[in-house]
Amino acid sequence: MMKKVLFAFSLLLLFAPMALAIPQPQAEVEMMVSSVLDVLQQEKLSLEEKKAQVSGKVQEFLNVSSMSQRTLGAHWQGATNEQRQRFSELFVKVLEGTYLNRIGDYTDGEVQYLKQRVKGDKAIIDTKIVTGEMSIPVQYKMIYVNERWQVFDVIIEGVSLIRNYRASYGEIIRKEGYEGLFALMEQKVIAMQGTAGE
């Protein structure tokens, strides 16, 4: 299940690189999708050039602080400020590496917008990713912070990305502590960087 969630999340991030301050979250998602697809569909750009233009923008789209805290769950309270910062930095790199390594596969993907629900500073955007023979329902859970909508969780086919990471990372922390988790995350990032150059 984790591989399927990561696969679908990589599609999601490819189509949503940057969050801008606009009133309606769905309109914002549509703008984000258009901006990244404009890059992916430029035939004159090489794969590496496309990756370079998309790289780094995930930080603007995600509420990294909220995602990190929700991912660590109860372990967040027991972490030092340095450990929290280190986790957030590595978590972003893991997410970014995941979607950058899928750029070449989903240039012709399509995102269909189904419904948005807004309540106060929270919103849920129902979408569907369609590519080839695959059709994957995806919900964006968003929060309005500092005059911008950002994602704090993604629900893919009813499965929460944050809950998946929380389960796997929590088990590692229990067995190997924070340093063990950081070591494994660093190894993952290095492995993905090597794959990106292939």
Automatic annotation (TrEMBL):
Residues 1-21 form the signal peptide. Transmembrane segments: none annotated. Keywords: Signal. This is Phospholipid transport system substrate-binding protein. InterPro entries: MlaC/ttg2D, Tgt2/MlaC_sf. Pfam families: MlaC (PF05494). It comes from the Bacteria.
